[in-house]
Amino acid sequence: MGGFGAEIVAKYNYWIYVLLMMIGFYAMIAKRNLVKKLLGMNIFQTAIILMFVSAGVKHGAAIPILDKHEVLEHGVHAASVVNPLPHVLMLTAIVVSVSVTGVALAIMQRIYRRYGTLEEDEILEKIGE
Amino acid sequence: MTGEQMSKAGTSGIIVEMAVRIATPFIQLFGMYVIAHGHYSPGGGFQGGVILGSAFILLGIAFNQEMALRYFSERVNSILGSSGALIYVGTAVVCALLGGLFLDYSALDRVLPLGPVEWRSMGIFVVELGVGLAVMSIMTSLFWDLGSGGDLEKGL
Amino acid sequence: MRSLAFIAVFVTGALLLYGTRDFPAWGDPAAPAAQHVSPTYIEKSVEQTHVPNIVTAVLGDYRGYDTMFETVVIYCAGIVVIGALRNWRDEE
Hints:
The structure holds three protein chains of three kinds. Chain A is mostly helical. Chain A has one domain: Helix Hairpins (Orthogonal Bundle). The longest helix of chain A has 31 residues. The mean pLDDT of chain A is 90. Chain B is mainly α. The model of chain B has no long low-confidence stretch (mean pLDDT 87). Chain C has a domain of 37 residues. Chain C starts with a helix and ends in a 7-residue tail after the last helix. Chains in contact: A-B, A-C, B-C. Chains A and C meet through helix 1, helix 3 and helix 4 of A and helix 1, helix 2, helix 3 and helix 4 of C.
């Protein structure tokens, strides 16, 4: 296996997340419908969450739930457990993404009630009138 | 009943209703298990709260919103959610008042001497309980408000 | 307009793909993310908190502030949804 093959095996997960992020980013800036923009933002957030979680992986390591008595007696080797910090950070990021989605949907319902549409250009036209 | 008749009557059929009646207590039990076992298995306040909230969302989908609100009124929901956030902040403030740092659970040792390290474990549980209550209430209220457009009458 | 969006997306994607050249390989135990503070948490958290699940220990104890304001954030989101959707004015 050449240098590029090793590179693919080592980093293909990050490339997939970049691809997911591009899909979400495109939906956010090119789509006219506000719900589609919101879906794009959710895809974007998912890509970032996946990237952080996969940054915590170690080869051959166990999940970060230890045996209390064994650890208190013998201690634990850091390389044998995956990095728990990205998991914690992404747990809170998922909650924020749910809150953001909820508030955005509420505001969209409000916009629909007032302007009767969720298409961005039609809303802009009606604001201009 | 055809689909149109069902949506007019506001029900989703007897099979779905009976299944939801049977499943709801188990979903709630599982949610409480996930919250309580956050120390020993994957889980914790956020995850368990979402499972508990999904039980009420299931009630709202299978029956209608009135039925769900009869079992779990909005008043109770908002009281539970506020008390969840209050439990978290209250624990932190009690720790500070007892002479520790803000959110330093080992200060609670002065109330009930279990040992500072054991109190850090217990403090995490109390805090997770607060998070679980708040998340359950907010998930339920998000669904009720977004599904009914804010009037809490018809629902999805 | 659409081609402009495509260009922006592909330029961003290409920059990020170029950035992954410096990333550590997937699952590398010697990656910088696994070297700085996480060994301390893994080795000390059970001893200091008696919680076997490190994620819960970090979430509830070491990063207690973060989780507290996280709860406040979702609480605020619930209040905002109620405030934005209810028809306060129609009741008068």
